[in-house]
Every structure is written in C-alpha cells, then in structure tokens.
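Lecture notes, unit on protein representations.

Consider one protein chain, 329 amino acids long.
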Amino acid sequence: MYDSVLYGYGTTIATFRRLSSEAELSERQLKFLFFESFFDKFIHSDDHKKVYKDFLKCFNLTWEVEKNLTAVKKALSERSEEILSYGFERWVSKHLFDKENKVNPNEQFFIYMLYNYWAHILEREIFSKRNVKPVIEDIACNIRDNITNTQNIFTTNFDTFFDDILKPDHLHGSFSIPLTKEKQIRLFHYNNGENFEYGYLFGTNGIEKLTRLDRIRRWEQDSYQLRFLYDGNVDLSHLLIFGMSFGKAEFMSEEFLNEYPEHEQTYVPRCVDGHILLKLNQKMKDNKLQKITASFYTDDDLEHLEYMFSLAGLESISEFKHSDDIKLL
C-alpha cells in the first residue's frame, strides 16, 4: 500500500495495451488507440481524407485558418520522424535555441489541437463502447485500492478516462471533450490578449513548466489542480510514482554539458519534469514525504531515474521497482 500516487503517460500506454488485448477492439479502433501510430497516419494523410476533414470540423474554423493549418500539417509531416523519435516535448526542447529549426507557434498550436482531437476520437470511438468500460474500471479500482489516502491521487496526464473513479488532480491540465470549437483548448489570454495559455501543458523543461504553472494558478480555471505543487499541507508520506520517465530536456545536450560542466547539477531545467523533482525535494525537507517508490520499464529507464533522483537529492528516500513487480495495472 502507498499513501499517495502520481501517475504519468506510461500508465496510459499500459492501459491501452490491456484494452488492445482484452476489450475486443476492431481494427479501425486499434488504429486510433496509440497516439504515435495515430499521429503518423494522420500527418501523412491526404488533406481530403475523412479524418482530416473531421479534425477541421471539430474546431469550427474559418477557411483562412484551415488553409494555414494545412500548410502547417505539410511542414510537420516532413519532420514527423524526428517528432516521433523524441516525443513532442523533447522535440521542441531540442530546437529551443536553434534559429533555423525552432518550432514556431503555429506548429505548436497544431500539435495541441491534434493531441486534443485524438482524445476526442478516443472518447467517441473507443471509451463510449460497452466492452471498454470494464477494463478501465478494473484498472482504476486497482490503483485506488492501493492508496491509503484517495485524496492524494495526482497525474501529469491530460486524459480523463480514470476521473470518474480516481478523481485525480491534473497537475498539467486536461483535455477538453467533446470538441466543438478551437477556443476550447485556450485557457485564458494574458499580456493584453497577445498571448494565451492552453488547457493542458506541454513544456520543454522544468523551469518553463514551473513558470507557466505559477501563472496558471493565479487564474480561476478548472483544468489544472495544483495542490501537489503549491499546498504545503499536502502530506505525501509514501508516494508511488508510476509511469513517469522524467525525460531529459534536449536543449541542454551532452556536448553543452561537456563544455559547461557547471550546469550538470541543474536538474530542474535538464528534465522535462524537473519542477516535480524540485517540489518533491521541498516536500522531503518539510517532512511531508518520507519515501518514494518509482516504477521503471527498462534498465535504461532505471539508470536515468536513479541519476535524476540523485541530482534532486532524493536518493536517500527512493526505491525503484520494475512496473511488473508493482502490479498496479
């Protein structure tokens, strides 16, 4: 048993693997299930294909905006292999200071739209089906039954298919479902309307995410629940971290660190979720966190987790277990 849990995208992947083997999904449904395969097919699809027309229809766009998005789609299709190799956050991070290949705002906006559209499709085509619900409920109930304090269930995921049972705090926001207009993915505008924040959070590193979340918490909204990050009274005690990789931020490359070794210890900007490591360190110092059990999938995952947790000063309270040994899903 654990006193609290923080689960990430690895939980989603494991859930979808169970769905693919237990829920009797059709071949068409399986094409939508995993974002990576969905993205690859979508980004290379003909602009007149039904799925692309449905995507545009969901956002109720003007013809001019549709035309611009189609151009962005073509540009992203030429970089799709790299996007899939790194994942969206690390891909943007890789080109953060690369003037020639820096990801522009239109490309980021398209990815945000596409990711939320994928969730919309899953809800419509898969999660609404009768044979899927028992698998989702079984997994959610097992997670809940392994936590002593069900008020302390947190996730960095944007998906909401566990929400009815787990009622988690979404640290990085959540998808807007069903989609009917483009404005749904915009949370609020700031800087006199010149900039806006999204209803869910992609970020290149822990510093960026911490900065944006600090701005978000000052607005009235219901997409993000941020007690984990900002409420000093939240007592995590024994925390289970499941399905989180704490991947490296690519903008700070090995070549850069070799040239400027003084930056090696700066774990917050070096990790896409460095802000969470920072908050865990603070919880430990405040005696609100006594132990961490973190899952891993491969030996490389384990090596990276041990390294990042060591940089964050968490090694003395941390243990690492293979995800199969935790038996959460």
